[in-house]
Design brief:
This protein is of the alpha+beta class and about 550 residues long. Among the domains are: about 5-65, DNA Methylphosphotriester Repair Domain (3-Layer(aba) Sandwich), CATH 3.40.10; about 80-125; about 320-510, Endonuclease III, domain 1 (Orthogonal Bundle). It is built from 23 helices and nine strands. The strands form two sheets. The protein has a five-stranded antiparallel β-sheet.
Length: about 550
Amino acid sequence: MINSHAAYRALTSRDPRFDGIFFVGVASTGVYCRPICPVKTPLQKNCRFFESAFAAEKASFRPCLRCRPELAPGHAPIDNSNRVAHLITRRIDEGLIDEGAGLEEIATEFGISSRQLRRIVQKELGVSPIELMQTRRLLLAKQLLTETKLPVTEIAFASGFSSLRRFNDAFGRQYRMPPTHLRNRAAEHHEMIDAGRTSTLRLSYRPPYDWQEILKFLDARMIRDVEFVTADSYARTVRLGKRTGWIRVTHAPEKGGLVVEFTRTLVPVLPALLGRLRNLFDLTARPDLIAAHLMKDKLLKKSVTKNPGLRVPGAFDGFEMAIRAILGQQITVKAATTIAGRFAEAFGEKIRTPFPELTRLSPLAARIAKASVRDIAKLGIVGTRAASILAFARAFQAGSLKLDTGTNPEADIAALTALPGIGQWTAHYIAMRVSRWPDAFPKEDVAVRNSLGRVSTKQAEEISQAWRPWRSYAVMHLWKNSPNPSRGNQSASSRAPQVQRAPQPVQMPAALLRGCGQRRLATPGPAQSETTCRVQSSYTERLWRG
């Protein structure tokens, strides 16, 4: 059953991630709509919420002619034209088309022809796919001309143009000036970065932004030789298509953004690189909307007031993060980090960088898919988990499992849990960080349940209803303020009976939020129990892990 209060909050946000999840019937008009409908938001007292268009019509509501509910995700023969247009826009923004996926490939993914794809984009957005890509390319070129000293020719190709002549023509038509003129004007007003072996660009966010907390989270889970976190920066090796290099990200609070330093080898794949970094650092979040809602809950009010810019860290590489989550099942965050380092050493290719901490690329799905369970298990991974990793890698490599932002999170969760050894906790955690689902909630997580006063899984689910549709952000607050970050997160039903523990005092929710933000950078978040005995329980696999 849909929580009407949570659904109304999602409706007012008009966040496209909720499209197709529910429908709203408006009693005053007799019309039902999608949550992204552009009309004025109706009064809450006039709204009825449904899980499907069929249920809305059964209740005698008629479909809206503007947002067209029949086009909602999962409710049309080709999964709806609006969604196709939205996803191709996101693909262009993230640079996936520039990585080699042309219109034909994207059309095939949706089960339509490239001609149908062009018609859909023209109808929904008023421009052709080529014009859409052209605009994105020109905007990126403008940023590169303004903020870097990269040669104009290099900027032309980095922005996706096939030749300097085409770039100059398109730029001149759109902005009524040659690229060099814009660069000269920008040089008078902006400090430009010398184009040596690296260049920098700025990625903006909506303030406030808790940079230190996101660094702490990533530091506790960084993969040795692939990632490196310092007190004020995040760095990692990068592979995008055939391009490799490294990036380093720092905070520029006075400019309201992050500064990304990248090797010039990555210039041709900049759109994809920047899109992945936006996901990793959760730069498109609306902290004002999220905080305004979560502050209404007395359990979270103090933490949200003190930490209004807390984000949900995403994933730079969805495959990498999912493997990291599976590796961390039933062991401590620290132990999982150690094993992840071994995994990268065994399956990741070597790369040369100026940093001794960055020496390997993240392992490819293709390489892991060719491995055996024994190859994986000899790294110190139990056989059943090694089999889970292998099954996931092969499904991912075959294309039967996709973990993209903007997809149907419930479908992602179902696909993940269909694989051997992957349960609800892992699936929700992956949906939270890879699929960027803002309402993911790992209700079995013991750190979460302990933070709520050592409640049951059912009670945690009931309490969380007040946080919808932003439960992922609520989880981050609970993890941050966990009363016993070094204690295990096993659920009561999964603790081994032979392990004796001293009784722990019940922590009341009001006391959980004291001492926020006092951990050092290298301090891991809530950790698993050192107990590694295998227990047959539905909870054991759903513990806190990175």
